[in-house]
TrEMBL record:
Molecular function terms from GO: hydrolase activity, acting on carbon-nitrogen (but not peptide) bonds
Domain Amidohydrolase-related: 51-374
Listed name of the protein: Amidohydrolase-related domain-containing protein
One Pfam family it belongs to: Amidohydro_1
Species the sequence originates in: Cryobacterium arcticum
InterPro entries: Amidohydro-rel, Metal-dep_hydrolase_composite, Metal_Hydrolase, Metallo-dep_Hydrolase
Amino acid sequence: MTRTSVASIRGALVMDAGGGFAPVDRVNVSTGRFSRTSTGGVDLDGSGLWLIPGVYDCHTHLSWNDFHRADRDRRSPAERRALTARALGDTVRGGVVGARDAGGADRALQADVEAGSLLGPRLQISVDMLGPETAGNEDRVRAAVESALDRGAQWIKLIATESIGSPAGAELGSHFSDREFRIAVDLAAARGARVLVHAWGGRAVSAAIDAGVASIEHGIFLTPAQAAQAAAAQLTFVPTLSIYHFVRGLILDGTVPGVPLVRIDEVIIAHRLAVATAHEHGLAIALGSDFATTLQHGTNLTEIGALMRAGLSSAEALTAATRTGAALLGIRDGGVIADDYLADAVLLSSDPTDPATFESPGSVAAVMMGGTLVPLEPGTSPHRTPQQQ
């Protein structure tokens, strides 16, 4: 796969570490990193464009291509492989340079991306999703966690509460006991892994925080006390706002039967409040799409606009998508356009302080990862191609 090295990007409005923008005459790239000087490669004309760091999606499902598991299972292995390759490519072409797969991707897929045989973002994997079938028995939890770790999991994914199947107004119980949370955290930590927890709310959120998990996913009914507790413990909140609007559409067209519209409407309203609560209490927020279909892969940046519409400023939403996401994934040299950081960036043709920008795939003019331009497939030409100088 031929890759074009970038020497510099000239004349763009460049995002700083705080999410603000200022014109910069020249952003230099050398050996895959931003630098004071540049080495060989093309010079891109960024005039009239905005340059942001590459985005980190901290909750996605890149090996899934259908919303329902039964539909995924009906596909042949060859079809699943082809669709997964497309999902990976679409995701990085859409501006995502790093992704935490929250269930489905395995070590073989990760290795193919690392080797360059598949185009995709830098990938961290959880392999399995451990839920109610695992919970309720400490030995079973130990065995499931160790099995995932043995197969290369860098993250242990616990599904601690019900989801859209729970009735409106229902009190959410926890599938896992306090001790089971701690067992998962301790086993993961002993092998250099961490834990992410799907939890809509209730006691599961508090127990997960107490156990020392790294992030809470969704957190729709997050309380002020839990937000303060999570902030004090230096956790990260990954809300995944956009997916529930997508689910609402599936309910309306009958694709998800048996889920009352009142439940998803309750969720959407509560979710915005949860983001506001997290922000008010200083809880770190990172971007996660929870995308899992062919229509969604590659549109991950819509979640930036969703974070803005939930009350974050443009600067806060952009840093959630970049610097905070990189920090959650342990990538200390990512998420910022500054000397010695990874030369990952997205050139946008529309104003990134406007949430509507992220609802238009054509706003992504170019993507650079590790100092090289991400190749575009035929038919996916950007809205505006930066001129090479």
